[in-house]
Amino acid sequence: MSDVNMILTEIKVNDRSMDALYKYYPKDLFPKSLKKPSGKARKCAFEHITNDVYDPEANMIAFGTSADRLPYWVRAAWLYIYDYLGTKGNMNAQWEHDPVDKNKLTSVNMLSKKDKINPLAYKLTIFISTGTIQVQGNDYNLFVSSHFKVIITLVNKLMGICENKKYESTDADQTIPKGFHDQEKPNTPSRTPV
Question: What are 18-32's pLDDT values in tens digits?
Answer without folding.
Answer: 888 888 888 888 999
